[in-house]
Design goal:
about 220 residues, alpha/beta, 7-stranded mixed sheet, 7 strands, globular, disordered C terminus
Length: about 220
């Protein structure tokens, strides 16, 4: 399989051992007292005890590892085997999978899927296909949470600029509904700025009265 845009970008910037360099960057930030777990703080109120979570585009596993430490049932998936190798080194007890998101088939569902760390701007495959596969891995009423930069000021060099409307349309095509839009992981309201954090839900047909028939409709 050809190297992805992500792999090419990171290798060009950090060399052959880019995955360890990437993980070490967050270690260094944490050592200075920087909170590197803002994503988990946002997700925590959305999750029930022991909820099943898929970290899609998990990289070296920073978010997935933290969620697992807090007691959630976490699976991390990434198309980059070097990043997943580092994730396995750091958290061998977590389930890690190497797969392109457009081809993902884990034969199970999750209460929440998260894409953190600018996953969408590095997707070279059909975004509709990615969102369709993630939607297929959501349980009814499950949430897809995605944060990414929208412009050059909020993206690493080499990333693609993907308007929120494009991503939202892909989610809609996959049967997901937008229920929240924020300007960052602190949960502030979206302000038409350069960063988008959105929450989409997979509706439960049982919640839609238009889908009820016969005795159900009259009860």
């Amino acid at each position: 399989m050809a190297d992805s845009l992500w792999e090419r970008t990171l290798r060009e910037r950090h060399g052959a051992d880019y995955a360890h360099v990437y993980a070490a960057h967050f270690d260094e930030l944490a050592a200075t007292g920087t909170d590197v777990h803002g994503e988990v703080a946002f997700l925590r109120p959305l999750l029930g005890d022991g909820a099943r979570v898929l970290d899609a585009g998990c990289g070296t596993g920073r978010v997935a590892q933290r969620l697992a430490e807090e007691g959630y049932d976490v699976t991390g998936v990434d198309a980059d085997p070097a990043m997943v190798d580092v994730a396995r080194e750091r958290a061998p007890g977590v389930t890690w999978v190497v797969s392109d998101l457009a081809d993902l088939d884990l034969a199970t569902t999750f209460e929440l899927v998260v894409m953190a760390g600018n996953v969408v701007p590095f997707v070279e495959a059909d975004l509709d296909a990615v969102c369709a596969r993630l939607s297929a891995h959501l349980a009814p009423r499950g949430l897809l949470v995605c944060g990414y930069g929208l412009d050059a000021d909020h993206l690493p060099e080499g990333a693609l600029e993907v308007p929120f409307a494009t991503y939202d349309a892909a989610c809609s095509a996959a049967g997901l509904h937008l229920v929240g839009h924020h300007a960052g992981w602190e949960g502030q309201g979206y302000d038409n700025g350069g960063y988008s954090l959105s929450v989409h839900v997979r509706p439960d047909p049982e919640d839609d009265p238009d889908n009820r028939t016969g005795d159900d409709a009259g009860s």
